[in-house]
Amino acid sequence: MQKDYIDYTNSKRAPVVICFVKHDGKFLLVKRSEKVGAYKNLWSSIAGFLDDSKTASEKATQEMEEELGIKKSEIMSIVEGPIYVFTDEKLGREWERHLVVVEISTPKIHLDWEHIDFVWISPEEISKYETPPGFETDLNRVKDL
Fold this sequence. Notes:
The structure is a single chain. Strands 1, 2, 3, 4, 5, 6 and 7 form a seven-stranded mixed sheet that branches. 14% of the residues lie in helices and 39% in strands. It contains two helices and seven strands, in the order ββββαβββα. By secondary structure, the protein is mainly beta.
């Protein structure tokens, strides 16, 4: 366990980094598996709790490797976007969302257990997919970063 690790698994409010992965003008959507804690079987992006002393960019780099098999050398840029609190009434949770756009040099990814499928889309196609509350709005917030 890391020195400054905080377990937000069951917290009412939790800080999360949401990584919008971009390659060649398209954004990556991943379908969440049955094994994740929230938003099962919905299309989303990779994300993780900011549960240690890492910055949003450092955490994004870690999540890229863990969830997609993307090495640091394959990351072309990381741009931190807005931070805000989103309340999901259905789950009874507040998410302190740290939005990040990560541009990568390759479209080749390797999903871990958290996701069962993926697709590259243009932002205009997002309405065709069932996503968690607020996801489409977040994509529109960062699509031009």
